[in-house]
Structures are given as C-alpha cells and as structure tokens.
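User: I've been trying to design a sequence by hand for this structure and keep getting stuck. Would you show me what you'd pick, starting by listing the structure so we're on the same page?

Assistant: Good idea, let's start from the same input. This is the structure you sent:
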C-alpha cells in the first residue's frame, strides 16, 4: 500500500510540472500542421471536414451493414466514410451520434480536442450498431471500419 501511494505522488509530480499548481497541467502548443495530419484522409492533400449531405441531385445513398465474421450478425463498430472530395460523411440520423468524433471540441460539444489525444483515431468517424445509411457525393467513396483490438480494421472503396 505504501509503494502505491508513493507511485501516485511521483506521477502527480510528473503531470503537474515545475511551478504548476495542484490540478493544473502543462499545455503543449497546438501545431496546426499536426492537427491537419489527423483529419487529412490518405490520398488527399488537404484536411477533410465533416460535410453535410450533398444535394439530392448529386447524392448517392450508401447502405452499410457490418457483420461479425464468426456470427454473421451486425456488430457495433467505428466507421469513417470519405467521399470523393476528401470530406467525411455520416448518417443524418444516428442514435450513437453523441459519441462519434464529428466535430472539434469545445465548439461542437464533441469531437477532437486540438492538441490532445486520441490521436490514434484519424479522421472524423461515427459509431454504428452495425447498420447505417447515409448520403454521399456520387463517385469513389472509401469506407474504413474498426472494432477494438481483437478485430482487424477493414477499408473498402
């Protein structure tokens, strides 16, 4: 018990940094180039934005069903949909939207926090219960699906 308490005190000292008050954290400066890297889809030269659905005359309806290979049943997962314009698309209606990474915090009330983790989540994604439908621009669309560390991520166009 004594060792655990000592370790906790040492960790607090590392997090606070020199001269910081209790409860304060050192803030690294936000580097715009680093932030742009996180939301620039592979194959594009500029950051993608969370785009609204395209106008009906320029849209295609994309229906996604993600199934667990072992059970054949729809499974919850994280999905990135990148349109031919390099922007990110998501379903207009999604019960899991409050948990999705579709904006920048604090402006959007959810999403990436500039300069903060989780940097492993590249792009803007939405969570799905296994079945989703959304409008995307006509053209080549990339869909990337991930689910925990026990599943291999998949990407298709």
């Amino acid at each position: 018990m004594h060792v655990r308490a000592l370790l906790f005190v040492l960790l607090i000292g590392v997090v606070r940094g020199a001269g910081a008050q209790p409860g304060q954290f050192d803030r690294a400066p936000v580097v715009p180039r680093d932030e742009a890297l996180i939301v620039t889809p592979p194959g594009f030269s500029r950051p993608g934005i969370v785009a609204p659905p395209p106008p009906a005359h320029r849209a295609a309806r994309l229906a996604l069903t993600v199934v667990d290979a072992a059970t054949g049943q729809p499974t919850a997962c994280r999905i990135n949909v990148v349109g031919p314009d390099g922007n990110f698309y998501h379903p207009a209606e999604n019960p899991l939207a409050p948990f999705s990474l579709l904006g920048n915090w604090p402006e959007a009330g959810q999403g990436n926090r500039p300069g903060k983790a989780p940097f492993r989540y590249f792009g803007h994604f939405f969570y799905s219960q296994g079945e989703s439908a959304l409008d995307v621009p006509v053209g080549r669309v990339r869909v990337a699906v991930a689910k925990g560390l026990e599943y291999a991520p998949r990407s298709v166009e």
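That's my pick for every position. To get oriented when you compare it with your attempt: Residues 2-16 form the longest helix (15 residues). The first strand starts at residue 59 and ends at 65.
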